[in-house]
Amino acid sequence: MSYFSIVHFRKMKLLLVAVLVLVADALSVKEEWQQFKLDYGKTYRSLVEEKLRFSIFQDNVRKIKEHNGEYDKGVVSYAMKVTQFADMTEREFMDLLKTQSKGLKSLKTGEVFDSTGIEAADSIDWREKGAVTEVKNQLRCGSCWAFSAVGAMEGQIFLKNGSLESLSPQNLVDCATSVYNNDGCNGGLMDNAFQYVIKNGIETEQKYPYKGVDEKCRQKEHTHKFRKYLDIDPDEKDIAKALCKLR
User: Fold this and answer.
1) In which domain, by residue range, is 85 found?
2) What are the pLDDT digits (tens) for 131-155?
3) 8-48: per-residue pLDDT in tens?
4) Contact status, residue 167 vs residue 84, Cβ threshold 8 Å
5) How confident is the model over 106-122, as pLDDT tens digits?
6) Helix (DSSP H) and strand (DSSP E) numbers for the chain
7) Of 234, 229, 230, nearest to 202 (Cα)?
8) CATH at residue 209
9) d(C-alpha 215, C-alpha 60), whole Å
10) Are residues 141 and 234 in the same domain?
């Protein structure tokens, strides 16, 4: 066998391996796609729409794998995975979480956190200390204000009692409404949510589960109640100090 034949054979072999890898990747993505549809109950109105969603899914899976490769190398600090939004573009996802309500104002602002004389730690992770509940999903509802409010309150309950309880964003969506200058799934403000809880208290997620739509207020009692809240200046140094000392 001549040198040319050997080189040509090796090139053909490498090309065949590359083709096999591409085929394997394509099969893997198709299998992931089928599993994705099963996991999240995905159905589409037409074959054309499904092809579009599959194309978007492929692109997102590629981005996830590239990102996780950087994570494995220690270049980035977090990993990514496929979620129910993996068949959506970034623009569609951002539009999904937008709220339409305008002109919302705080009924009353809280006392401002005073960071004077407080030194911030180099780092602190309240997840490691057990003060943060599991990741929640607001679904197709502009209720970020309610989730932000319950997240802050959950941490304070842990710091006071040493117990971690998941509070109910739906309680706020349904009950802390127009009287408190909030608009349910169309938006609201944390300060107004806190005002509601100071007066009425709040239920746990278990007793008042999340639905992701505006419903009639069903709160009959409360598991927790708060006396006051503090507002923090939108300054990174003040936020860092508050994370270390606010309790």
Assistant:
1) 3-95
2) 999 989 898 898 999 999 999 999 9
3) 445 555 555 444 444 445 558 899 999 999 999 999 999 99
4) no
5) 776 678 888 888 888 88
6) 7, 2
7) 229
8) 3.90.70.10
9) 34
10) yes
Cβ-contact 213, 172 below 8 angstroms? no
Percent of the chain exceeding pLDDT 90 equals 57
| 219 DSSP assignment | -
| CA distance readout (Å), 77 to 70, 137, 196, 231 | 9, 22, 37, 29
> What are the distances in angstroms from CA 189 to CA 21, 66, 136?
51, 37, 18
Q: In this structure, is residue 33 part of a structural domain?
A: yes
Is 78 domain-assigned?
yes
Give SS3 for 39: helix
Answer with the one of 42, 64, 95 that is the final residue of a domain.
Answer: 95
CA pseudo-torsion sign 84, 203, 153, 99: positive
104 burial via Cβ count (<10 Å: 0-12, 13-18, 19+):
middle
CA dihedral 124, 119, 153, 130 (to 10 degrees): 30
- pLDDT exceeds cutoff 50 at 6: no
Quick one: which of 134, 202, 199, 201 has its CA closest to 169?
Answer: 202
The runs of H, that is alpha helices, within 73-221 are: 90-96, 144-161, 169-175, 190-200
Q: What's the pLDDT at 245?
A: 77
> How many other C-beta atoms can be found within 10 angstroms of the C-beta atom of residue 55?
11
Q: What angle do CA 130, 135, 137 make, to 5 degrees?
A: 155
Of the candidates 203, 206, 199, the one whose C-alpha atom is nearest the C-alpha of residue 217 is 203
pTM for the full predicted model: 0.73
